[in-house]
Amino acid sequence: MTPKLLTTLKTYTPKLFAADAFAGVTVAMVALPLSLAIAIASGAEPGVGLVTAIIGGFLISALGGSRVQIGGPTGAFIVVVYGVIAHHGFDGLVLATLMAGLILLLAGALRLGNLIQFIPEAVVNGFTIGIALIIATSQLKDLFGLQIDNLPADFLHKLPALWEGRESFNPAALGIGLSTILLIVLFRRLAPRWPGLIAAVGLTSAVAAFAHLPVDTIASRFGDLPSSLPMPGLPEITLARLRELLPSAFIIAFLAGVESLLSAMVADRMIGGRHRPNAELIAQGAANLGSGLFGGLPATGAIARTATNVKAGGQTPVSGIVHALTLLVIMLSLSGLAGQLVLPALAGLLLLTAWNMSEPDKWRDYAKLPLEDRLLLLLTLVLTVAADLTIAIGVGVALGLAIRLRRRHVPPSDWTPPTR
């Protein structure tokens, strides 16, 4: 379970550092707007996203089992984080994140990293599409510039609330959001190695500022971004709160473990390497403990940012450390400028993120799956959207494992009548 950083430093060269430094700065420019947008969508202060990317990203790269993994806040957590904050407050989220960190450390120590192969793929695809749908609808308010004081968290109640607020539609906000989406797509096609996210969001935010468009910025709605890291501290810890937040902590740990290991496997295919799953789980545990101590969000390996790191030339965990340090420099010296990013641009960014999360290029393949897998995917998706992520994952995994056993032709149990 040795971290990959220690392995790669044995043969490290100035040439490798140059490649890692370029990739790390590039990924930081991608992570900056994403971290702010994910925090806002999660119901937290935007600066919390930066704290998570700095602390969580540093620890995941320093202690992880992948050469190129990039960590931080991700869209997969938005739904569960929003729910925890709504029901238990931000203090409750911090405690749940700390508990999830301990769970992940225990999972790594018990060498449970390889168990990801037993999670049905249809379940992962189902709740991922469901989360993407929830994220997309949560961004419609800012995309259309709607004036809605209290947007319901529940998906089924959110849609009517959005419709009722249609009279406050702001064409300028929609124009900024759509322009941001278009620019991101163009940058990805024309200059895939460059940080098109920050360029697109920065350009549309600049246009909004110079044209004095009536759209909200991060600073106008949430105040100035922090210009330093907060002091570490612990939330209120009681036995009752621990029991109350335990289900949320398990969901955070599950999502962090699954997404980080999936991201590491994607990275392996891109670089022809092999990650260390148990070291990765321990790094995720440490990252969530660290993020929680500094008042951050849950952290995990981010598939899109990891892929960006590889495409930009990152070759060792040093690139992830450079990414975290670059974000720290931005927080210390450029937080005022980052606060001028406009919310419709961030909404457009998250809408595109949600679209990519749902992996539309695979939908045709899903339609060709066996009937049982299609039903399992749809059931998990519907439960994620209409019920609760905890229920969706629990029911989906249980049914998926049952289907797996059935396909292996395991003979039915020889039940005997009870004696009672």
TrEMBL record:
TM region(s), chain numbering: 21-41, 47-63, 70-87, 93-110, 122-140, 169-187, 194-215, 245-267, 325-355, 375-403
One of its GO biological process terms is: transmembrane transport
| Entry keyword set | Membrane, Transmembrane, Transmembrane helix
Q: Where is the SLC26A/SulP transporter domain?
A: 17-369
Q: What is its main location?
A: membrane
How does this protein sit in the membrane?
A: Multi-pass membrane protein
Q: Does the keyword Lipid metabolism apply?
A: no
Protein name per its UniProtKB record: Sulfate permease
Lineage at the top is: Bacteria, Pseudomonadati, Pseudomonadota, Alphaproteobacteria, Hyphomonadales
